[in-house]
User: What shape does this take?
Amino acid sequence: MAIGAVFLYFSSMRFIIDESRPAGFNMAADLYLLELCAARHTVTVRLYSWARPSVTLGYMQSASAELDLDILRTRGVDWVRRPTGGRAVLHHGDITYSCTFPKSAAVMGRGITETYRLITQCLMAGLDRASVKCAAHDSDSELRGVGRTVKLPCFLAPNRNEVMVNGKKLVGSAQKRSADAVLQHGSIPITTDYRWLPEYLRIDEPEKIKQTELLESKSCCIDELTSGATFDSLAKCLMNGFSSVLPFDGEVIPWSLEEEVEINKILQSDKFISRYMSDMSDVNLEGTMLINMEGTPPLRGVPYPTF
Assistant: This one.
């Protein structure tokens, strides 16, 4: 299909500005949108937050192996597995985005690298409107060496075309590509609360201290870059950013009652519970394969988008 035809066919973009939701609902909603865009040929950007502090795990991670589940329960922190790869991320005081679109929308990028670069441009355009001056760079090469001795927090995993501010990572993103559609979602910390993540991991005290130091020195949050930012103000700026970069007319369309029913059906299904809310010992991953930027199994030393 010619690019011009794509512009005509995908002429609109839906924005969903969501309320704070439980962890399970947030991942079920992203999966619902992934299925919806393939069936209806829609491009959707959803901006959301979390009802309680929540840790999301990469799809291949085991909750009991990665998390101190007793501490999570004691402190009222939820957890859920993402449909995307990577490692643990703490969502607390952040704004999370997701972008879903059918693969037939070639203007959104024909591969992981193109899509990642394009959405990075959208995020930077939105953050610029919030007076946060960003640049797209590869992650600090120093982290590659550190990663050989310390298990890096997912938010510091080395990657290409990261949203950086003064050499520090601001946005962590990940991608899932199905047969017909693409989901990319990511976290933008507003406050410093995301740096509490090491406290919830199943690691010893020296590694907790090292990971916390790395999060402080190699990543940043909105509150450290500008004053007065809120979820609502950032959501408005990010919508403007996506609208300025992508060739679509954007419109805010909230969830319908029917859509919320369908999302809750996904959330309550045995399939979702076993894959996203149960430990890996209960999950059958036969045939599951992570992909790198070119759509093949990851090569040694070649990173792919992760939170």
Residues 154 and 234 are 23 Å apart (CA to CA). The radius of gyration is 18 Å. Residues 3-282 form a domain with the BirA Bifunctional Protein; domain 2 fold (CATH 3.30.930.10). Residues 1-8, 281-306 have pLDDT under 50 and may be disordered.
